[in-house]
Amino acid sequence: MKWKLAALALVTSVSANASECGTVTIADMNWNSASLLANIDKFILEHAYDCDAELVPGDTMPTTTSMVEKGQPDIAPELWTNAVKEAIDMGLKEGRLVNAGESLIDGGEEGFWVPAYMVEKYPELSTIEGVKKHPELFKHPEDPSLGAFYGCPAGWGCQISGGNLFKALKLEDAGFEVVDSGSGAGLSGSIAKAYAREEGWFGYYWAPTAILGKYDMVKVDFGTGVDEEHFLECVATDTCEEPKPTMFPKSPVSTIVATEFANSHPVAMDYLGKRGISNADLNKLLAWMENEQADAEDTMFYFFETYPQVWKAWLSDEAAKKVAAKL
Predict the structure, then answer these.
(1) pLDDT tens by residue, 183-235
(2) Is the pTM of the predicted complex or chain greater than 0.85?
(3) Which of 201, 235, 269 is the last residue before a domain boundary?
(4) Which UniProt key words apply to this protein (predicted)?
């Protein structure tokens, strides 16, 4: 009887812990670094904190809007907050969102890029004025009389800022037209294709990514420096009528959490506040992911196996032991 009561107490305790956390929804964004972080969070929340964690499809603008308006999903592990600053600021001000901390310790880097082999041959291409003088070096795939600018995929926040800078830099007047890459894979594929053929390529890209680790690219200098205030208040918004040229500021990349989850899960929030990764480590992980043709879940296990010093620092000793036992 004592054994049965002890067993019942144990089951009740485990059930109480699980129900205390309950179901947690995590945005699985459609780019590799964010998907990797989403899988890491899912595994840790499930096995360290007994949550019933679920990945749901996500994208920058739709996920942010849904979190502000509906409180779902509970967690967006990697949001480039400059890209949706107005919505994020409104959500924070109205108490609907909480910024748990920085996903990328070093922040993100954005810009317009050209291959290094082109700059070696034509040094002026390191500047936007040099690029504008030579649209013929960046032939449009559908109309060789135009220069191609490979833009940010539709639905991503950088589609707004990239489009506004395309306008501000008067690239259309210089003979360029935006090429819709269709997806993150399409955009990275266009760089890989250009490199394989040593052809011209000019467009938007960001770091940390496997692509910028694998291919030597030069960020084009606009000659303007960074006007962060104008970028945030105008260039990054879809209501910007007169965008002015400015380099991209360093991008804060944060873990954004719905307030209801944040208020009811202090232990999980402590983990999310400590969970951050450097660009150097993330570039290596993304390069491994690409070289091995691995998915985000495979790369998550590789991360746990290869970087224990990183993830154990995010957790208490007890929580780290739980995760290690499941691995």
Answers:
(1) 988 999 999 999 999 999 999 998 888 898 789 899 999 999 999 999 999 99
(2) no
(3) 235
(4) Signal
